[in-house]
Design brief:
By secondary structure, this protein is mostly helical. The chain has a domain of 52 residues. Helices cover 80% and strands 0% of the residues. The N and C termini lie far apart (144 Å). The relative contact order is 0.02. The N terminus is likely disordered.
Length: 764
């Protein structure tokens, strides 16, 4: 009996082995395995699980590397994930294995079209149509390629053929609508949009495109109907909800836009992009207090969302709640000390505390470790600017703008630099990029207009300013720009109206006020200029820049006490207004109150320790008073703040040359100044004087002649050239320069030096 039971057990075991062998034989069959993995991949793909689908298609290809369908479907996964290069390679491999695959040929055309290789895309589309004349995809590629190459009507005809081939494909109707719209065939485009929706009422791209079409035509109710239908069709999608809020904003219905995003937050509470929309809305509209409250709530509700946490930290910094911001940021850095965003925020906190040197080190490390991080470069530029190193600041901002051309803050910073030095080419580039980044903002159009007018293109400037008013009818900058343009065109009455319209919309616009009072001055009516400035200050009494305009009017009127009072008020209202501080100190100097001027410089330097202009101006004052040692200290302080400050380098070099300092150090400083200010006569003179002490007389002569050509009435330059000619054994030219210097009535000290040089030469 025992043996019998064992025999039965042995037979069962052998049967199991046989079954296992059979199963193993099946699993080793490449065709069976490739199909098993391929079918699994298709199931994942249909459920929009593209990563899992890709893995299964790759498994299928391990079983059979020559399985063209698996290569094609793998390409579709890569396309869904936006991996264009890899998708392109897989499509090429598909065609290597199956040259007659029209699908792959058409998809290659789509990728080439996206890469703006229109001729190549057209070739692929035609090849696909030879393989399959009923390929709607290939027909659409052909249509779009022709339209992109300027053959719009041909493209429309081909898009209509695609619709004929596939009348039940909503994307074919949409593609036709877009081409018709680009060609300006608005009624036909609207009909095609509606046909797309008729084919598939839930086709989101058609609903959104038609909504945008109606919005541009200001057919607000119809636009809203389409966007609400899009939300109903895809209640968990963010795009239609964002579009609806944008529609309400375009209509001026800010409260409705906010309400729509509150609804979106509730509907999309598990989608990070969805629950951030309301906070981002507050940020984009400048409602920082609401944004702070919203992101505080989000940071607690979604503690793992780093983007939320970092935005909250930024808002805390803006609200001057540095301790809280630091606590949140330290949490991020504790988890990841190399988090670049957190490093940037740490640097910003240090900068707010006046610790620019530490902030600089952190940002330089961040840009070294993450050289493609545009925000890090932008913030590094801000630190350089705070420290007075504008050349380095501009370099970092240029890098940020190159990395991300749509980086609005970087373009704004560069535009400010361009405006200050009248660099119209740079300003044109910034304006163009700002328009691309935010077409519905007037900012880019205003900058572009300034560049165009600066280049002499008044008509272009006019068009850009009118476009600015079109997108923002109440923007004061556009009215100010038009006022300035009319002033240049010698149309003062029109200019006056535009400046007044700007001030009606923004009573604090110092640019508009400056334009207005300039007209008064040109009309030789200084009393009206003062009255206009005072009237505007009454409307906006807390605006520092308006008092600065008033102070300059009093300077022109030679009313120094009133000028000082206006500049004092400007500085009291804004301790960061260094221009006002410098003007106030100058007003005191003109009144003979050097001590008061020094006090202003020192107070301003406490709030603006990295603005080298304050050290330069105070150093110049001390130098003119004969306090050489104190002037040297101030120039050195400026150079510690900004090592390439040309004013401090130039003035310190001259001090060292004139008062027994190190001549080699003086030469180095003079070279720095000349490099930074190559067009200034003063840097040519100082460098020449340094070469004089080095015995390089011919080089010195060339620089001095350049300085005199630019500033022919400076007696010091003529004196320097005279003694240099003396050393170079050219007595005739030396005497000519001494005589010219004396005719220019030099001060007593210089006059004595000139006479001594002439006497010494005669006695020799």
């Amino acid at each position: 009996m025992t043996f019998q039971r064992n025999s039965i057990g042995a037979n069962a075991f052998i049967a199991c082995l046989a079954a296992a062998a059979l199963l193993a034989g099946c699993s080793r069959d490449p065709n069976a395995r490739r199909k098993e993995y391929f079918d699994s991949g298709m199931r994942y793909f249909q459920r929009a699980k593209y990563h899992e689908a890709a893995i299964q298609f790759q498994n299928s290809l391990q079983a059979d590397p020559y399985y063209s369908d698996a290569h094609y479907e793998l390409a579709q996964c890569f396309l869904k994930d936006g991996a264009w290069t890899t998708a392109y390679q897989e499509l090429l491999r598909t065609l290597e294995l199956d040259p007659k695959d029209a699908r792959a040929m058409a998809d290659l055309g789509k990728l080439l079209l996206a890469g703006r290789k229109f001729d190549d895309a057209r070739d692929r589309a035609q090849a696909a149509l030879l393989l399959d004349p009923h390929s709607a995809d290939a027909q659409m590629v052909l249509a779009n390629a022709d339209a992109a190459m300027g053959r719009e009507e041909k493209g429309i005809a081909e898009a209509k053929t695609a619709v004929t081939i596939a009348p039940k494909r909503a994307d074919a109707h949409l593609n036709l609508a877009i081409l018709e719209l680009r060609a300006g065939h608005n009624p036909e485009a609207e009909a095609s949009f509606l046909n797309s929706i008729a084919v598939d009422a839930n086709y989101l791209p058609a609903r959104l495109s038609l909504g945008q079409f109606y919005q541009k035509q200001q057919r607000w109710p119809e636009a809203e109907t389409q966007l609400r239908a899009a939300i109903a069709a895809a209640p968990t999608a963010t795009a239609p909800r964002t579009a609806l809020a944008a529609l309400y904003l375009a209509e001026g219905r800010k409260d409705d836009a906010e309400h729509a995003l509150v609804e979106a937050k509730g509907a999309l509470r598990e989608d990070p992009e969805g629950y951030r929309m309301l906070g981002d809305f507050y940020l984009s509209n400048g409602d920082t207090q609401k944004a702070l409250t919203e992101f505080a709530s989000l940071a607690k509700a979604h503690p793992k969302d780093l983007r939320v946490k970092k935005t909250y930290i930024q808002l805390l910094i803006l609200a001057n709640r540095g301790a809280e911001a630091k606590a949140w940021n330290d949490e991020i850095l504790k988890a990841n000390p190399r988090d670049t965003d957190a490093q940037i925020l740490r640097a910003e906190l240090l900068s707010h505390d006046g610790r620019q040197t530490e902030a600089l080190a952190i940002l330089q490390d961040a840009t070294k470790n993450a050289p493609d991080n545009a925000v890090a470069h932008f913030q590094l530029g801000l630190i350089f600017a705070e420290m007075g190193s504008m050349q380095q600041a501009e370099g970092e901002w240029r890098t940020a703008a190159r990395l991300v051309p749509s980086f609005v803050e970087a373009q704004r910073a560069l535009a400010t630099v361009a405006q200050r030095r009248s660099d119209w080419d740079l300003l044109w580039q910034c304006g163009d990029q700002l328009i691309r980044a935010q077409a519905n903002s007037p900012e880019g159009y205003v900058d572009l207009a300034a560049a165009q007018i600066g280049r002499g293109d008044s008509d272009g400037g006019e068009k850009s300013l009118q476009k600015a008013l079109e997108v923002a009818p109440n923007d004061a900058r556009a009215y100010t720009g038009l006022g300035n343009l009319r002033a240049v065109q010698k149309r003062p009455d029109d200019a006056l109206q535009f400046f007044q319209q700007a001030l009606d919309r923004d009573p604090a616009s110092s640019d508009a006020l400056q334009g207005l009072v300039n007209l008064d001055v040109q009309r030789k009516d200084p009393a009206k200029a003062l009255a206009d400035a005072q009237a505007q200050i009454a409307k906006s009494p807390a605006t520092s820049a308006l008092y600065f305009v008033l102070g300059n009017l009093y300077i022109t009127a030679k009313d120094l006490p009133q000028a000082a009072a206006a500049f004092q008020h400007a500085f009291q209202l804004d301790s960061q207004n260094v221009d006002a501080a410098l003007a106030l100190a100058n007003a005191y100097i003109l009144q003979g109150s050097a001590d008061q001027a020094v006090g202003v410089y020192q107070r301003a330097a406490k709030d603006n320790p990295h603005d080298v202009r304050l050290y330069d101006a105070q150093g110049s004052l001390q130098e003119s008073s004969g306090n050489w040692a104190e002037a040297e200290k101030l120039y050195r302080a400026a150079l510690q703040t900004q090592s390439d400050d040309p004013t401090a380098a130039n003035n310190l070099a001259y001090l060292l040359l004139e008062h027994g300092g190190d001549k080699d150090v003086a030469l180095s400083l003079a070279q720095t100044a000349r490099q930074r200010m190559p067009e200034a006569a003063s840097t040519a003179d100082t460098l020449a004087w340094a070469y004089y002490y080095q015995g390089a007389y011919p080089t010195a002569i060339g620089l001095l002649e350049e300085a005199i050509k630019k500033t022919p009435d400076n007696p010091t330059y003529h004196y320097h050239l005279g003694v240099t000619f003396q050393k170079n054994k050219d007595a005739g030219h030396a005497r000519d320069q001494f005589e010219r210097a004396l005719k220019l009535q030099p001060n007593p000290v210089l006059s004595q030096q000139i006479h001594k040089a002439m006497t010494d030469h005669s006695s020799s």
